[in-house]
Amino acid sequence: MGFGATGQTTAELCFNTAMTGYQEIMTDPSYAGQIVTFTFPHVGNVGTNPEDDETGDPVAEGMVVKWMPTDPSNWRNVQPLSDWLAARGRIAIGGVDTRRLTRAIRHLGAPHVALAHDPEGNFDIEALVAAARSFAGLEGVDLAKDVTCAQSYRWDEMRWAWPDGYPKQESPRHKVVAVDYGAKRNILRCLASAGCEVTVLPATATFDDIMAHQPDGVFLSNGPGDPAATGVYAVPMIRDVLDKTDLPVFGICLGHQMLALALGGKTVKMSHGHHGANHPVKDNDTGKVEITSMNHGFAVDGQSLPDGVVETHVSLFDGSNCGIRLENRPVWSVQHHPEASPGPQDSYYLFERFAAAMAERAPEPAQA
Ligand SMILES: NC(=O)CC[C@H](N)C(=O)O
């Protein structure tokens, strides 16, 4: 049975295994061009609210769930999931054995699919199959340009603190330019909580655009699509930052993949990617294991990293690369999502490490 908007859409289908956070998942800009099928069966039962959006609108193309959402029951609920999706033009279907579907995706790879919702049940199956077949896929596609901000803006909201909402930051210490390839809001909040004065710039920002803000550090955000395609314009900018400055650089997910490309590494398309909130990642420097949030369908090829680039984190699920750093400079990035939202906060220390690198580069003048 369908819910949310009516109509039809095509996309890549990926599964997410998180047990919470369907609203954050649906509004993560990195899901542009993808439909998400949830292995957790209760989706929609706590409704939706304005605080949990990771961006203004859902950017995942649609959702597939096991049970039709029941009436929302939560003190934070403002709108039932079905109405929330309908208001944003997003199609969903329920009553699907999503764990069986997930097993098929794990076996065969993420398929190209058509998703349709018609309350009258008038489906032209052949047309839907043709639509799915004509979907070109995500390889070679720059989707960051579709989800980035139109203009630069200042971000000053910090991480959630119950019960009064997101607090505003008071005296930020480090000027950070965050390049927005489809940034999740909680990443910006985590940067603000770590003491960064965050200015967000559009994905096409040039080296000169960035330097005009006299930053103490540069942050490269998450985002949808193929890192090699967005890298066509992002990599030259990143190389300029690396070659012409000594600024600390920190990247997450798409930002990680594009930093690796700028340093001479390669990225590959995965068969079904990593999408969940329980992915164990090992920090090679400390030997510690972090349980992390993940959402990626491309990965950095750890074998392709040139000399001077250290592999700092690996996935304990499949050994794939999850982090890199330059040997002698505060330039690093991770594949997983230290901002969580949804997911565990084990990796939040990475934001503090970024702030510490900026503090070390530009120590605060001693107080008189
Ligand atoms: N969350 C992200 O930034 C995803 C990066 C990239 N689009 C991928 O699928 O791998």
UniProtKB/TrEMBL annotation:
Reactions accelerated catalytically: hydrogencarbonate + L-glutamine + 2 ATP + H2O = carbamoyl phosphate + L-glutamate + 2 ADP + phosphate + 2 H(+); L-glutamine + H2O = L-glutamate + NH4(+)
The organism's place on the tree of life at top rank: Bacteria
EC class of the enzyme, as a word: ligase
Pathway assigned to this chain's UniProt record: Amino-acid biosynthesis; L-arginine biosynthesis; carbamoyl phosphate from bicarbonate: step 1/1; Pyrimidine metabolism; UMP biosynthesis via de novo pathway; (S)-dihydroorotate from bicarbonate: step 1/3
GO MF annotation terms: carbamoyl-phosphate synthase (glutamine-hydrolyzing) activity
Catalytic residues of the enzyme: C253 (nucleophile), H337, E339
Residue numbers spanned by region CPSase: 1-166
Function in brief: Small subunit of the glutamine-dependent carbamoyl phosphate synthetase (CPSase). CPSase catalyzes the formation of carbamoyl phosphate from the ammonia moiety of glutamine, carbonate, and phosphate donated by ATP, constituting the first step of 2 biosynthetic pathways, one leading to arginine and/or urea and the other to pyrimidine nucleotides. The small subunit (glutamine amidotransferase) binds and cleaves glutamine to supply the large subunit with the substrate ammonia.
Protein name per the record: Carbamoyl phosphate synthase small chain
Organism: Sulfitobacter porphyrae
